[in-house]
UniProtKB/TrEMBL annotation:
The active site is at 233 (proton acceptor). Substrate binds at residues 143, 298-299. It catalyses: sn-glycerol 3-phosphate + NAD(+) = dihydroxyacetone phosphate + NADH + H(+). Residues 32-200 form the Glycerol-3-phosphate dehydrogenase NAD-dependent N-terminal domain. Belongs to the NAD-dependent glycerol-3-phosphate dehydrogenase family. It comes from Fistulina hepatica ATCC 64428. This is Glycerol-3-phosphate dehydrogenase [NAD(+)]. Residues 222-372 form the Glycerol-3-phosphate dehydrogenase NAD-dependent C-terminal domain. PANTHER family: GLYCEROL-3-PHOSPHATE DEHYDROGENASE, GLYCEROL-3-PHOSPHATE DEHYDROGENASE [NAD(+)]-RELATED. GO terms for biological process: carbohydrate metabolic process; glycerol-3-phosphate catabolic process. NAD(+) binds at residues 37-42, 119, 182, 298, 330, 332. One of its GO terms (molecular function) is NAD binding. The lineage of its organism: Eukaryota, Fungi, Dikarya, Basidiomycota, Agaricomycotina.
């Protein structure tokens, strides 16, 4: 095992059931997986988990996935397909859509959060005390950051969403991220992902849930690094989209990705001191995810369209492009770009992150996209 991979013992069931008649001993299905979120990425991960747990000792074979709309929920269960967000991908019969969030979470011991990050506060608010089992564990595939500006003190605080979930629910929370386009994962194409875990036990459990021959899972103890890489790469992907929108070539895009990766790593290690730069250089959650998102993701696509439409001066805003191009999915990069800008401004550190600053100003302050390269 590589030194940047967390060491763990493979998951083994801890309790067994003895049949009274035959005397045979079989693992008790103590672990039950729940998926909060039914967008393209949540559905793809739900499919991976459902296929795995059906074959895994110690796991309940049924995986519950929260689908808020009752009509959509019924369609998913009837057709075994999420035609809206993951069309053409067959879902296993043991993946069951449920429209009640509480009913999804209540029996679960392993909970995946995969909702747009601006929706997480409402989701957590719906989980009344006692809904989540005290021995449950969570994992976040949410891309974003939680920023609190303290104007009276002239500063700001920033939190990862695993930290937000841990504080709200009182359970340990890991992070998942990597070079993972949802449709490719749903189709079973080979890829890797990274899970940032607070303990070897979390590594063993989440590895058992998600690892497969076509979806390789590599754990690391750097929960903050995995979470931040998933958030910040969307900001850099906007810059990559601006480059494409201006019709510039591979040299320029490669330079932006290198500079962007450096700002991602530097930002994370500056404000989350336990984070490791190896997460960005050695893991799928780092450079690999940045490459994938900057060539094929929704943030790149919308940023290219934004520039080709003439930027905000031509009244083609990112909100309009989100509705026009994403068909109900949410754009994460612009929200994160604004939050990161406000945090750095409050901390007096904008000069240390010129690419992040330019992405914000091009997106929201009518800066000419050609100024992206100033002072880089």
């Amino acid at each position: 095992m590589q030194p940047f991979i967390t060491k763990f013992d493979p998951y083994e069931p801890t309790e067994y059931i003895v049949d009274a008649k035959s005397g045979t001993r079989s693992p008790a299905p103590l672990e039950k997986v729940a998926i909060i979120g039914s967008g393209s990425w949540g559905t793809a991960l739900a499919r991976v988990a459902a296929v795995n747990v059906a074959q895994q000792d110690g796991f309940h074979p049924e995986v519950l996935m929260w689908v808020r709309d009752p009509d959509e929920c019924a369609r998913v269960n009837e057709t075994h397909e999420n035609a809206r967000y993951l069309p053409g991908v067959d879902l296993p019969s043991n993946l069951v859509a449920v429209s009640s969030l509480a009913d999804v979470v209540r029996p679960a011991t392993l909970i995946l959060f995969c909702v747009p990050h601006q929706f997480l506060p409402n989701v957590l608010a719906e989980l009344a005390p006692g809904t989540v089992q005290p021995n449950a564990r969570a994992i976040s595939a949410i891309k974003g950051v939680d920023v609190h500006i303290r104007e009276e003190e002239g500063t700001a605080d920033i939190y990862t969403f695993p930290a937000v979930i841990e504080k709200a629910l009182g359970i340990p929370c890991s992070a998942l991220g990597g070079a993972n386009i949802a449709l490719d994962v749903g189709r079973g194409q080979f890829c890797e992902t990274t899970i940032g875990v607070p303990s070897p036990q979390d590594a063993a459990l989440w590895h058992a849930v998600f690892d497969s021959p076509s979806f390789r899972v590599h754990p690391t103890s750097d929960v903050s690094g995995v979470s931040l890489s998933g958030a910040l790469k969307n900001v850099v992907a906007l810059a990559a989209g601006f480059v494409d929108g201006m019709g510039l070539g591979g040299n320029t895009k490669a330079a932006i990705l290198r500079i962007g990766l450096l700002e991602m790593s530097t930002f994370t290690c500056e404000f989350f001191t336990s984070a490791s730069p190896l997460t960005f250089s050695h893991h799928s959650a780092g450079m690999a995810d940045l490459i994938t998102t900057s060539f094929g993701g929704r943030n790149r696509r919308c940023a290219e369209a934004f520039v080709r439409a003439g930027g905000s001066k031509k009244k083609k805003t990112f909100d309009e492009l989100e509705k026009e191009l994403l068909h109900g999915q949410k754009l994460q990069g612009t929200v994160t770009a604004r939050e990161v800008f406000m945090f750095l401004h409050a901390r007096g550190r904008l000069e240390g992150y010129p690419l992040f600053e330019k992405v914000y100003r091009i997106s929201f302050e009518d800066m000419d996209p050609m100024r992206l390269f100033d002072d880089l």
